[in-house]
From TrEMBL:
Keywords: Ligase. This is Ubiquitin-protein ligase. It comes from Sphaerodactylus townsendi. The gene is TRIP12_1. It comes from the Eukaryota.
Amino acid sequence: AAQFLNSGNVRHRLQFYIGEHLLPYNMTVYQAVRQFSLQAEEERESTDDESNPLGRAGIWTKTHTIWYKPVREDEDSNKDCVGGKRGRAQTAPTKTSPRNAKKHDELWHDGVCPSVSNPLEVYLISSPPENITFEDPSLDVILLLRVLHAISRYWYYLYDPTWIEELCSLSEVLQVQRKDDEKDGHLNCLLCLGEGPSSPVDITETSGAAMWSSPSKFIWHYAIDINSREFINSKLTAKANRQLQDPLVIMTGNIPTWLTELGKSCPFFFPFDTRQMLFYVTAFDRDRAMQRLLDTNPEINQSDSQDSRVAPRLDRKKRTVNREELLKQAESVMQDLGSSRAMLEIQYENEVGTGLGPTLEFYALVSQELQRADLGLWRGEEVTLANPKGSQEGTKYIHNLQGLFALPFGRTAKPAHIAKVKMKFRFLGKLMAKAIMDFRLVDLPLGLPFYKWMLRQETSLTSHDLFNIDPVVARSVYHLEEIVRQKRRLEQDKSQTKENLQYALETLTMNGCSVEDLGLDFTLPGFPNIELKKGGKDIPVTIHNLEEYLRLVIFWALNEGVSRQFDSFRDGFESVFPLSHLLYFYPEELDQLLCGSKTDTWDAKTLMECCRPDHGYTHDSRAVKFLFEILSSFDSEQQRLFLQFVTGSPRLPVGGFRSLNPPLTIVRKTFESTENPDDFLPSVMTCVNYLKLPDYSSIEIMREKLLIAAREGQQSFHLS
């Protein structure tokens, strides 16, 4: 039934009720009775979900009535199925309303930008937010902690932006070195400022009286001294983990209301791993949630392997693609199966390999193809790959050290080009959503502003976010904003005569050059064809319209110029599952969810704990010790090559080697007695993460052979 409901646009004929509660279509009968039955209300309140997830016997002996009635035509046409393939009912419409159209006209004709929203406003309230419906004696404390966490996260919105700009000049005004104090869990900070003491001051040990006069420096101390990890509640986390690791709770869908509501409204209570499991339990069907549980807890799989009630029944659909037309064929695959609840498996033409390895490589290679410079999707510089294979030779790709962000459109962009780019972003949305749903990873280095757009936080983007897409432009904007601040101070000085004020304004310069002499006009820096307002090419920037110019630059770079691309991205993503399910995560955490573990140091101790020697090797084997020593010396690019060779994906899941499933297994590659192991390369079975390693005579030979295999053994799956 779940697969049928999620197979496409299902038109429902009936609605079901318990009392006045409309039941979601993807809810089990048991879950509906447990949550909404009036007869079971006292039962539900007096039952501890954790100790007795099936409730007391009374719930099974009473009669519970479920009412049904036909769906009216007008309701059916306006309502999306809950648990169906779309979740658009929970999201804002993407089409421009007449009111928005008016705003756009004001932007184009008058240069009037919408004001930046303050993310703190939704937290600084005395009553519970709408998505918290449970009642509990601890609710007041929960709301207080929610406010404190929000202030520690968004404290700079409480103060004059001029102070914040001082802190945000990352390379020239402020240099921050952080060091973790393992003893008390606090984050100490060494602050070096262009003005102030000549040597760093450990401000966690500095008294308030000794703080410098600027309030921004004082705020900075207290803001970073509250470590976000201190908000994690160990007791709530333990209780949540017990619920989320119980197969019976998963299969009955009996997740407590408090857990899902706290997960989205107060995610800081739980570590990332707990929220990731909660996400999979609530966002998708029960079989997928069960599969995720078994993947992350192999001991459950072993203990319940004979229990057919626990084993997930996931449909799988295989597609064969051609490497030479990978992007085109990937678009076709996502068009056909992106919204399907079946697990996607990929095989390549003329290659016998199938299963996990080729599928992981498919997502990695398509991610790379989407970074091609000729597609015109991203901001950044054009580069060529260090080790190109096949069609990659001679192809240029976009690289941005801060992370990828959409290339902006102007008002005069050609409709055909806009349509082509929007189609690619819609495909990207589908690809990313399908990767999340199928427990796969994409290899896209997206920037933080991209993830803020995903979580619908684009209205709070400011000039500080420019540092995350184009630091050169951001630094120039910062220097020009400093001129605006000086202009404001001069205009607020009542002692200035009109003549003196005019003279003082004319002497304001950037690097010794007046604003007029900079030769700027109302076009987006780096994009001379994108006008910030109508006729912008012919409007010079002066000291008097500089503030308007900067507001428009920031708004066009982060919002107006990219809104159509992100609308298409959201449409594609939400054709698979609603973006609202990602509210369990913060923007900076989405990279872990989508792309897995970031590059980190591999040490021999961790590798020994996480990797499994077998079939001829033990942890004491010379070859295994050689391997761990070699892997621990790899740089980030060599790590990516090795992972792509062994697993099919250049990145590890969150948790690194510890979370790799199946674990990396090292087996001995055997030869005839007349053959020399030093003459052969290692081989792999990516579907089970098997490395078949010859017993090389020296560590130097093993390192050489490993790197040759990793570089040359890409993009082909054959029998080994």
